[in-house]
Amino acid sequence: MSELVPEPRPKPAVPMKPVSINSNLLGYIGIDTIIEQMRKKTMKTGFDFNIMVVGQSGLGKSTLVNTLFKSQVSRKASSWNREEKIPKTVEIKAIGHVIEEGGVKMKLTVIDTPGFGDQINNENCWEPIEKYINEQYEKFLKEEVNIARKKRIPDTRVHCCLYFISPTGHSLRPLDLEFMKHLSKVVNIIPVIAKADTMTLEEKSEFKQRQESMPFAVVGSDKEYQVNGKRVLGRKTPWGIIEVENLNHCEFALLRDFVIRTHLQDLKEVTHNIHYETYRAKRLNDNGGLPPVSVDTEESHDSNP
Ligand code: GDP
Ligand code: MG
């Protein structure tokens, strides 16, 4: 019975502006060690990152993801069997890898979508891709509402979708617009102009004038060349070597910095807090506020008295 205790009286809970206190005078507390604690935790558990590539065959999607992660994380067209034809519909393939750098493990999944935009009639070819993205949200939701839910739900949700625009056109084709219109509601899309080395400077600037800083005009390569005594990733042409990471040659480095060095965590957070949350709210709403029915959960027992 707290009201019988006369002293000390708790202060009324008046919301106050937090006052910044300089702890230097009072001695070190150790608040800043949270950074080190978080670092250790990430080192121990690693983190997931799922990246999807979309665009017509031959635009350099596989080459670019291999360039981004400096490893063979995506199968290139050249390693294909000659008999292997262009798939009749969009085929979706997810391949997982573990990449380690500085003791930090990234569980990278590259989701390839061969067949997108390769048909004569490409109407609605974004649909299987949207379906795949939503299926991953559904999987996550089912795990989340499970009574015996896992501590760490396996995350297969697409955190980032690189959309490859053909360098031949002077602007976006109807297919590009349709894709971005529909998919930007469910996933983070980063548009890139593929094979930017095949465009003239005028073409490039004309293309970019229509939009903002995006799309990044990129060049991919997994071959190294010696330039001024340094080994660089590049493409050798009769006119010289196009250096992938040289900002005077293309914007690959800007894309790499954005996706990996400055916004990777943001891409994951937006996926969880906005795209997944929207899916989840809609799903629970449609179901009258109840979690989705799943055979894995205990619902099946409800019918038994
Ligand atoms: P995907 O079908 O979109 O995955 O394309 P690939 O990555 O398999 O590449 C198709 C072809 O284009 C290969 O011969 C690559 O060497 C070439 N290629 C890839 N990236 C570039 C680029 O940035 N510029 C040029 N000129 N060619 C590229
Ligand atoms: Mg490919």
TrEMBL record:
Pfam families: Septin
Name of the protein in question: Neuronal-specific septin-3 isoform K
Domain of life per record: Eukaryota
Any single GO CC term annotated in Swiss-Prot or TrEMBL for this entry: cytoplasm
SUPFAM superfamilies given in the database record: P-loop containing nucleoside triphosphate hydrolases
Signal peptide start and end residues: none
Ribosomal protein found in the keyword field: no
